[in-house]
Amino acid sequence: MNILIVDDHCLFADGLKLLILDMGRGEYQVDQSYSGQSAIDLVSSGKQYDLILTDLNMPGIGGFELMQSFSNRAIDSYIAIISASSAIQDIQKAYAMGARGYICKSEASFDMQTKLKDLLAGKTCFPDELWDTLGPDQLQPENIARNSNPVLGKRPMEVLNLLAQGKSNKQIAAILNITETTVKFHVRTLFTTFGVNNRTWCVREASRRGLIDTDRA
After folding, report:
1. Do 6 and 36 meet the contact criterion of CB atoms below 8 Å apart?
2. Which of 19, 121, 122, 124 has its CA 20 to 30 A from that of 183?
3. CB under 8 Å to 147, separation ≥6 — which residues?
4. Which residues, 6+ apart, have CB-to-CB distance to 216 below 8 Å?
């Protein structure tokens, strides 16, 4: 699973990388960029990432601008914010822009590690206070109403179609030439996106929304 850390504080970025590598024990490939522009240059060069963890307040291109830039370039990596800001307006904006999560740097190390594990497992992860500020119609995975279609990137769609064919994680990994860890990440993310908890219902929900044709899968 390929991960990119974007943070202008080198010490924090280096420490976060070591933490993730220790958690994965060989399952994760972690790169670092110390500015928003260098992250854009790296991704634009063709390097693909499953998850991008970015700070918000950086010189030049900040986290929100980085998310918008990736959206404009149709980069389909999942993005989560790790920031010193605990302002509810920043958390709300990250959620509204489609971030997978928001972790405050002030979190205790154990809590941060727990939330990182959730993100790396493909789950969403936001501070509890966010949910108190949202109306019932906003409390949906990926901030997408149940009867509308999420925008899935190329890799998630490939995994989804192979799920529809009944392929196992090991088979999907071999077909797509990716690791089983990466497959598990995308499967769990699909579950979260569709609000389901197993492969069968994931395929059914995707079919219901017209994203896949199970008769041809």
Report:
1. yes
2. 19
3. 209
4. none
pTM of the model: 0.78
CB 191 within 8 A of CB 150: no
| 3: phi then psi, degrees, rounded to nearest 5 | -130, 140
Q: Around Cβ 151, how many Cβ atoms within 10 Å?
A: 13
Using alpha carbons only, what angle is made at residue 191 by residues 5 and 98, rounded to the nearest 5 degrees?
45
| CA torsion angle 103 57 76 206 (round to 10) | 40
The DSSP H or E segment spanning 201 is helix 199-208
Query: Tokens at residue 16, please?
Result: 């976060």
Task: Going residue by residue through the chain, which has 217 residues, state the pLDDT in tens, using 9 for 90 and above.
Answer: 899 999 999 999 999 999 899 887 788 999 999 999 999 999 988 888 999 999 999 999 999 999 999 888 878 788 999 999 999 999 999 988 889 899 999 888 888 889 998 888 888 889 888 877 765 455 444 444 343 456 677 888 999 999 999 999 999 999 999 889 889 999 988 988 888 888 999 999 889 888 887 665 5
Residue whose token pair is 């991960």: 3
Decide the pairing of beta strands 101-104 and 2-6: unpaired
CB 52 within 8 Å of CB 4: yes
